[in-house]
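INPUT
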Amino acid sequence: MWSQIIFLVSIIVVTIFLLLELKKVLIRFYIALQGPFFAPTNSQRIKQILELAELKPGEKVVDLGSGDGRILIALVRAHPQIKAVGVELNPKYVKLSRDNIKKAGLSKKIEIRKSNFWKEDLSEYDLIVTYCIKMVMGKLERKLKDEIKESTKVISVFFQFPTWKPKIESGDIRLYQK
Ligand SMILES: C[S@@+](CC[C@H](N)C(=O)[O-])C[C@H]1O[C@@H](n2cnc3c(N)ncnc32)[C@H](O)[C@@H]1O
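OUTPUT
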């Protein structure tokens, strides 16, 4: 009787483990085919980011995976004296964000780099914004803790870091500091 229960529980545990691994493989396969996920931050969340950021003139901001550029455009409109950089891997969104920034008349104030943010040095920024997928939050937490200054603010949209406790939470927008 006990051996049957142990066998059944083992089968369930192994099945759950395999399904979770299969999910990761399918996500990697999707990213390899389609490029990284794009989901824009909505205007309510951008308002929350603006409130938490408390930017000062001259500060430097980066959006890791800047998509269509909407967060940077909103930040620079609210704080024209900041320096803003977007790092975006997908050429489609590099072009779209550059077009949107041009339409907003902010080409001189926002730089979009076509680059992989894992290769970027994040030590120079005062504010880092990120809206990534859950799978990479642990790796990103380690990179940020290794590279950023004590004073740097990190704002994450929706996803939380696995061990880093947020300093401020506003709905699903969270601000972190070392
Ligand atoms: C969820 S979207 C967020 C877009 C934008 N930050 C916003 O909140 O509206 C994530 C973006 O990150 C980009 N991305 C994902 N991995 C990346 C990487 N390693 N380097 C640069 N960009 C990346 C995707 O192409 C996508 O545009």
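end of record. Residues 83 and 128 are 12 Å apart (CA to CA).
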